[in-house]
Amino acid sequence: MSILNKVGEALTEVRNKTPLVHHITNYVTVNDCANIVLALGGSPVMADDEKEVEDMVAIASALVINIGTLNSRTVNSMILAGKKANKLKIPVILDPVGVGATAYRTEIAKKLIEEIKFSVIRGNISEIKNIAGIKSNTKGVDAEEVTEEKNLVIKEKKILGETLSEELGAVIAITGEVDSISFENQTYFVANGHKTLSKVTGTGCMCTSLIGCFCGANDDYFLGTLAGILSMGIAGEIAHEKTKDLGTSSFRVALIDSISKLDAKIIMERSKINCEI
Amino acid sequence: MSILNKVGEALTEVRNKTPLVHHITNYVTVNDCANIVLALGGSPVMADDEKEVEDMVAIASALVINIGTLNSRTVNSMILAGKKANKLKIPVILDPVGVGATAYRTEIAKKLIEEIKFSVIRGNISEIKNIAGIKSNTKGVDAEEVTEEKNLVIKEKKILGETLSEELGAVIAITGEVDSISFENQTYFVANGHKTLSKVTGTGCMCTSLIGCFCGANDDYFLGTLAGILSMGIAGEIAHEKTKDLGTSSFRVALIDSISKLDAKIIMERSKINCEI
Amino acid sequence: MSILNKVGEALTEVRNKTPLVHHITNYVTVNDCANIVLALGGSPVMADDEKEVEDMVAIASALVINIGTLNSRTVNSMILAGKKANKLKIPVILDPVGVGATAYRTEIAKKLIEEIKFSVIRGNISEIKNIAGIKSNTKGVDAEEVTEEKNLVIKEKKILGETLSEELGAVIAITGEVDSISFENQTYFVANGHKTLSKVTGTGCMCTSLIGCFCGANDDYFLGTLAGILSMGIAGEIAHEKTKDLGTSSFRVALIDSISKLDAKIIMERSKINCEI
Q: Where does substrate bind (chains A, B, C) (predicted)?
């Protein structure tokens, strides 16, 4: 079966299994994350008190940890939930939002990776470099380095992703104009997406939540990560086509709409994997 | 006057009195709750620090307590605000989101009910069963049991709602495909709504906020609860008609739009109360 | 150059410089604030833990402090970030949401003003009166006093704004049906806007975030505040024209859309500054 057929089937699995995706996430984009999980066919739950996160993750199919609005109260909850998920073989997905922007974020991301075995880590190039211990210029939480020539970026993403994947045993996804998804010594490149995605807050967080849904419904996390990133990129393209010049908020509505209308046929027709850049 | 006429008048009262509805609620759906309160004609305020909740509730017309993202910091605020509201005869409405999913939620819901006299409790069948001390399978926060035959469900909702209402002295609303609203030995059934409501996060929370508005403008909390649930169901139907196949995010926009355009005539024409199922 | 030309240029500067606007704000309207900052051309970051706010504000171009859901945990973060911003000459904008509604809010607003030098304070008449130590009837967080005759209101806003500006060395913006922006002994009046802005939560917060963007891209904070308030008012008018009777949630989508499509020409054509009321 082709990889795109598998992605289509993974979507069907999400819709059939309605995986419960437990999020410990930020308060900025949490509503969009919940709605995009529902739109894809999953079931979101957001709970972050240390008194209940272990119970909650125990009934979940996946755990998403997002450090967008990191605070002392929830760090311990993240660790408790992550460890419990590890014990129960529930996949844990990390979105290291803004790591590198402050010493605290860098320290906490490091701590999370030490204490929890992640199945997937998704970030932009600057965040993933930071996780890998490579210095990078981060400006806020949305930054991407765009200093290098495109082919170099592609090559760098492959090396960075695969090296970090080997080191951590996790799927590493680096999103940007071209997304890379690496596991061990394999890397997919995805060229879907639209630049308006960067004008709506939380498209990265939402992408991570989609990955959570796919990984909650299928044990192949490499496939699940690819499926999540393809879904987001394709939805961005459709949203742009539907809303053209209406503005960024109409785009955002159409983005979640498109996820709710996504099917295997659309994935098959629109996916741009491994294409020549 | 017919009950539907009374609901129509209750809406007019909300619009004339602009009740201030104080919420101590979760950070996932809080924005939609605030916007739907404004759309109906109320005025929302969200404040959760224990240093100010008593002052805030003292100027409010109703208090909504929603445990969606329960945490140790706000539990005490909920109790302080609830007790103050009781003292001032301000109605308190409980949305026991996800109770039963974790031991912590069950414990806190129990504690809230012991310490605060609620005017209304709204939940799905699994949440209300849990409040009543009946075991139920809850999966996350959005679950509904759908194992039984429909007539049995109706009958069970009536018995459960009326028994719990007698015990707690509160209006008990059990929402689902058919909603029931019970007070003492009386139960209304509402068959309005649309299945897409379950594909948008927070439609339960928003429904509870609407109940808060109605109860803040009119002392008849049985009527207020019925009015809130009818409003949500009707808005869901209109939203579906307006957005058809656009997707779940367009539906969500149309849902709040419909509340802002709701009037007595629409309520009269569309309400399905006590109809044969 | 006319003031409107300057506002148009200020918008261009936001788009060219992409100022990073650090927010310590409430969890009700935070997503809309982030999206409207992106729509205008800025870059939002929301971080509130005391362990990282100083690092975050150090890489930002402006700091917005909004006390909408004030709590003990973030008050200290606000003070740390504010003091750091002052040291680095980064403008700090205060939105004293609901000050006067509770003793706690009044106390904290006072403390913030004592500890931090604000470049801009934006509120409604009741909030600004409260900051100035004048008693005012506040009901919740959205209240505006509408007891006085319109000309008196205008005159009062000028006196209040200029007096407070002299006292605090800050630009004082009082938004309402007519907005006033005062600095030292000068006041602009803006008559743009639409009444539906008051039916969407967070339009005040969003306006403050827009001011944050402009002040992060241009050292003239009086101009930046005027630009933010004009942008919001004009966007409200366009949103109403586009959505007419659709409802308040469509209006909200169109509002952020309009900010993303705003340009110098629209500002020039639509601004109503200093006009006779």
A: 46, 202
Cα A101 from Cα A98, distance rounded (Å):
5
Across the interface, of C103, C245, C247, the residue whose CB is closest to B256 is: C247
- Which other chains touch chain C, taking contact as 3+ CB pairs less than 8 Å apart? A, B
pLDDT tens string A3-38: 999 999 999 999 999 999 999 999 999 999 999 999
Helix (H) or strand (E) segment spanning residue B166: helix B150-168
**Who wins on pLDDT, B137 or A250?**
A250
According to DSSP, the residues that pair with B92 across neighbouring strands are B63
CA distance B65 to chain A (A): 16
Average pLDDT, chain A: 94
Two tokens at C255?
């509002």
pLDDT > 90? residue A150: no
Return d(Cα C70, Cα C105) in angstroms, integer.
8
Cβ(C190)–Cβ(C270) under 8 Å? Answer: no
From the list B32, B36, B34, B40, the residue with the least C-alpha distance to B15 is: B40
Residue A63, SS3 per DSSP:
strand
CB atoms within 10 A of CB B168: 17
Strands C43-46 and A62-66: unpaired
Tell me how many degrees the CA angle B262-A44-A207 measures, rounded to the nearest 5: 105
Beta bridge partners of C122: C173
Contact B103 A43 (CB under 8 A): no
All domains in chain A, ordered by first residue:
3-270 (3.40.1190.20)
CA separation for the pair A176, A128 (Å, rounded): 12
Comparing CB atoms, the residue among A56, A255, A256 nearest residue B101 is A56
From the list B204, B158, B150, the residue with the least C-alpha distance to B182 is B158
Please tell me whether the interface predicted TM-score (ipTM) of this complex is above 0.90: yes
